């Protein structure tokens, strides 16, 4: 694991009270299965069930992020680009080192959207 500097107790057991509140909201939702590939940051596995995705979203509030496993899954799947949404920068920085040669864009402000669009256009 790679410890990251964060501004709060996100992705730790200290967020358990938030998990319960999110779970209550999640129970009111009717998730659909994803139409595109989604990987969970919990263990890097691909998520194909909407219900499982929702369960993982609730749990991720107090679960560690396993970006190392995500990058391994991305490499195995042949991912050709990564766009990180705000707040952005930490994960694309790790990806530049862990997935050498894979283009990345960190969208921190609206000014970064054009670079993200260019990356998507290049992948199409």
UniProtKB/TrEMBL annotation:
UniProt KW Transferase keyword:
yes
This enzyme catalyses: holo-[ACP] + malonyl-CoA = malonyl-[ACP] + CoA
Q: Which InterPro entries match?
A: Ac_transferase_dom_sf, Acyl_Trfase/lysoPLipase, Mal-CoA-ACP_Trans/PKS_FabD
What the entry lists under Gene3D superfamilies is as follows: Malonyl-Coenzyme A Acyl Carrier Protein, domain 2
Q: State the top-level EC class.
A: transferase
Name the EC number(s): 2.3.1.39
Keywords, sorted A to Z: Acyltransferase, Transferase
| Name the UniProt record assigns to this protein | [acyl-carrier-protein] S-malonyltransferase
What organism is this sequence from?
Answer: Naasia aerilata
